[in-house]
């Protein structure tokens, strides 16, 4: 079989570091040459990193990225190279350059620009208006970029009618729970509907709150995966395409033939002719497919990669965490060790008069299991000093959450002092359930440079903890079983103040992630109507607090921040 060999380069670029990204692309081109590849492919905006956001408004940034394309082209001898970059004509485009033997042979412009959720591409780019086919003698290969393939009427339809055997789709597709399976099924459907092979290439790594999972793959014209890359790791995926088999299948299928009957080629089709002879291979590459991993494992990996890249790409090394003996700080510390190594994680115990002996024991046991250095800084004397200084102005007033929040703010001050002195990044330990209802203290337990669990509901915190313990037990059983508590006053528990977390998280999913009207949510929980009303009011009124929280890793389809944009000054209420 004379096969076309693809090398899909699943790389982890750094936004704005064009020199680093260019060097990595050249490194992978050389690896692809060693694999006797015919075409080497790089992800969407691989040269700039994704998303570059308002860096795009800097003309020097655009020019530097174009210069990098020309540099990469020098390394394309005897190897067709496809790489994502920002193209500039009278406007700018999210583009794919086709390089060969030192030349830019053609450029494809992304046609469907996402402008929802975390995506703002309409803010930056002009829409492309042409479909592009690479012609290698009798072989035709269509080009598309990310969103182009998500629409039922997309460039693939035209490519199939034009007789293409393969579509190359380059991506920067961020992870959320359920996305990997959803994406694969969609690509399989596109392949089957058009009787065409599809090479789907995604980036890997993290940028701010987004995590990219990789999971690049190639499907044949029957929608079967013939090669697949790793999850959350850089990878070089080699796949051999039997384009003659694809052509035979297309000939036998009436759907494509019927579409061709009334098809008239439009001016918006560009043919990129390349004088290239498909290499004779020393051997056919066997299928390389990594088995699907459980969703909980994927989610855990996303958190690890999200934290690792945020710290390392910002040129920091060490993090510091307030260890309370609770499940949130225990899981955060565990993820931090898995991401950065135990030598780069510091734990701080800050007991008060309400901190139980068991909580101190549990925090120390987690630290011991993770082999991280800890410091114990009691806050009782500092707290009493605050109360003394405030005694005149607070005279004759009962204690309330003010005194509770003072404890949290003292702890926040201590963590930030350590950060300031040693250059350690404070990791906030709050979860999505708490962020949703404002069950946290501004300038207290909300302080930090990064919030690992910001988009993780409390019930998912438990799932992730049990999953991590199934690999190696690090979180004590008592932490997993005791009622969660901030321990800011005697006998305080989270669920007594809010709702059982199973109910609370279901409300948050419905109201925040799915935009289900409040009246329907109330009907779902008739026995807790007043408490549910209170939860919905808390979600609505705590937007001001969420805006001041550190960014965190997006793992759900709708996270706080770019995904869900609510006004702070807002008098609309469904309750």
From TrEMBL:
Active site at which residues? 44 (proton acceptor), 110 (for glutaminase activity), 146 (nucleophile)
PROSITE patterns (UniProt xref): CN_HYDROLASE (PS50263)
Q: Any idea which UniProt keywords this protein has?
A: ATP-binding, Ligase, NAD, Nucleotide-binding
From the UniProt record, give the pathway where this protein acts.
Cofactor biosynthesis; NAD(+) biosynthesis; NAD(+) from deamido-NAD(+) (L-Gln route): step 1/1
Positions that bind ATP: 322-329, 429
Q: What Gene3D superfamilies does the annotation carry?
A: Carbon-nitrogen hydrolase (3.60.110.10), HUPs (3.40.50.620)
InterPro entries in the record: C-N_Hydrolase (IPR003010), C-N_Hydrolase_sf (IPR036526), Gln-dep_NAD_synthase (IPR014445), NAD/GMP_synthase (IPR022310), NAD_synthase (IPR003694), Rossmann-like_a/b/a_fold (IPR014729)
One short Pfam name that applies is NAD_synthase
Q: Which GO terms describe its cellular component?
A: cytoplasm
Q: Where is the CN hydrolase domain positioned along the sequence? A: 4-243
Report if keyword NAD is assigned: yes
Q: Which reaction does it catalyse?
A: deamido-NAD(+) + L-glutamine + ATP + H2O = L-glutamate + AMP + diphosphate + NAD(+) + H(+)
Report if keyword Ligase is assigned. yes
EC number of the protein: 6.3.5.1
The entry marks the following residues as binding deamido-NAD(+), namely 405, 434, 545
Q: Which residues bind L-glutamine?
A: 116, 173, 179
Q: Which GO terms describe its biological process?
A: NAD+ biosynthetic process
Q: Which GO terms describe its molecular function?
A: ATP binding; glutaminase activity; NAD+ synthase (glutamine-hydrolyzing) activity; NAD+ synthase activity
Function, in words:
Catalyzes the ATP-dependent amidation of deamido-NAD to form NAD. Uses L-glutamine as a nitrogen source.
Family per UniProt? In the C-terminal section; belongs to the NAD synthetase family. Belongs to the NAD synthetase family.
This protein is called Glutamine-dependent NAD(+) synthetase
Organism this protein belongs to: Venenivibrio stagnispumantis
Coding gene?
nadE
